Amino acid sequence: MKKYVLSIAVLTVLLFVSCSDDSNPDEPGYEPIPYTLELPPIFDRINPPSIPSDNPLTEEGVALGKKLFFDPILSGDNTLACAGCHKPANAFTDDATLSIGIDGEEGIRNSMPLFNLAWNTNDFFWDGAANTLEKQVLEPVANPVEMHEDWENAVAELSAHPQYPEMFSKAFGTSSIDRDQVAKAIAQFMRTMVSGNSRFDKYLLGELELTESELNGFDIFMDEDRGDCFHCHGNPFNPLWTDNQYHNNGLDETFDDRGRGLVTGDPMDFGKFRSPSLRNLAYTAPYMHDGRFETLDEVIDHYSEGLVYSETIDPLMKAVAEGGVQLTTEQKEDLKAFLLSLSDPSFINNPDFQN
Predict the structure, then answer these.
(1) Is 133 contained in some domain?
(2) Within this chain, do residues 223 and 101 fall inside the same structural domain, yes or no?
(3) Per residue in 326-341, pLDDT tens?
(4) Residue 108, in any domain of the structure
(5) Do 40 and 109 fall within a single domain?
(6) What is the tally of structural domains in the chain?
(7) pLDDT tens digits, one per residue of 177-234
(8) How far apart are CA 112 and CA 263, in angstroms?
(9) Is residue 355 part of a domain?
């Protein structure tokens, strides 16, 4: 495993590690311990993770963020945690078509899976409504359809908690809690969620051989005349398996959900949504921004013969006039086998990401 030590300052770290574990976080000069982010070897192919200078990863910050992520204290009735709609077993998405908030109301979208977010330097959410991970964390808490909590109430509950003030003090040097610190802590934990140990990763590293069906599926994925998937979802030199851009992939002729257009106001962005990563598809059903496809077979059928033309359809959907790329039954099975080879069971079972 390749290690990046994300330090605040080298001299500060050296001074800190010379102290005992009983250091008082309220003492002048106390600094949290830099967090060592272990990266899979396959991530040598891309740039290091992008960590904001005003929110470096620390042991204390990540531990606080993890506790907050799994704690329903941030919801209006203390019944729903972040992990309620972002479940470890589902690669931190939801197995419901549309995520349901504390009042029993459905949202308009399926929750996105959470992994490899430290490499996302663009926007967050399906429509890119938040331009940092920290801002993304803030929104679901106050959203009346999701956690439906007032931030002042949430902060008051955290401040009265028997453990949180000390944890915030260790992570941020102050026991005076505010919502920005909450967002920073949860964002730190989320940036540690790294997935890069799939069968296909091991194949690229020379650790195993893929089946004939998986290899054929990979060829289809990379072939512009058959699968033509790589433009939006990457290639072996992009282990994120997404371009993190917005595309109209031919789902609808008209749009009840305008997607990226809700953020930009540009009619040419109507119906465009972020390309999700193809990692961990074995765990992330249902699929698409609205969870309309229950199975991966339905997703492949859509691109094969279900494309629908609209004014904003992506030019990469070159076969829309024919309804799709028209794969044979065998080609569909091979493509599915390859896509499933990108799933990482060690990620969903990693104890560091469990409650």
Answers:
(1) yes
(2) no
(3) 999 999 999 999 999 9
(4) yes
(5) yes
(6) 2
(7) 999 999 999 999 999 999 999 999 999 999 999 999 999 999 999 999 899 999 999 8
(8) 18
(9) no
Judge if 32 and 132 occupy the same domain. yes
CA 2 to chain centre: 21
CB atoms within 10 A of CB 145: 16
186 and 230 part of one domain: no
- Does the pLDDT at position 12 exceed 70? no
59 and 203, same domain (yes or no): no
Q: Which of 169, 194, 219 is the last residue of a domain?
A: 194
* Domain, as residue range, for 85: 2-194
Three-state secondary structure string covering the chain: CEEEECCCCHHHHHHHHCCCCCCCCCCCCCCCCECEEEECHHHHHCCCCCCCCCCCCEHHHHHHHHHHHCCHHHCCCCCCCHHHHCEHHHCCECCCCCCECCCCCECCCCCCCCCCHHHCCCCECCCCCECCHHHHHHHHHHCCCCCCCCHHHHHHHHHCCCCHHHHHHHHHCCCCCCHHHHHHHHHHHHHCCCCCCCHHHHHHCCCCCCCHHHHHHHHHHHCCCCCCCHHHHCCCCCCCCCCCCEECCCCCCCCCCCEHHHHHCCHHHCCEEECCCCCCCCCCCCECCCCCECCHHHHHHHHHHCCCCCCCCCCCCCCHHHCCCCCCHHHHHHHHHHHHCCCCHHHHCCHHHCC
Does residue 156 lie within any of the structural domains?
yes
| pLDDT band at 28; cut points 50, 70, 90 | low
pLDDT per residue over 295-319, tens digit each? 999 999 999 999 999 999 999 999 9
Q: Are 30 and 157 in the same domain?
A: yes
Query: Are 17 and 39 members of one domain?
Result: yes
Residue type, 168: F
CATH number at 178 reads 1.10.760.10
pTM for the model? 0.91
- Sequence-ordered list of residues with C-beta below 8 angstroms from that of 247, at least 6 positions apart, any chain: 232, 272, 273, 275, 314, 316
Mark whether 152 and 226 lie in a shared domain. Answer: no
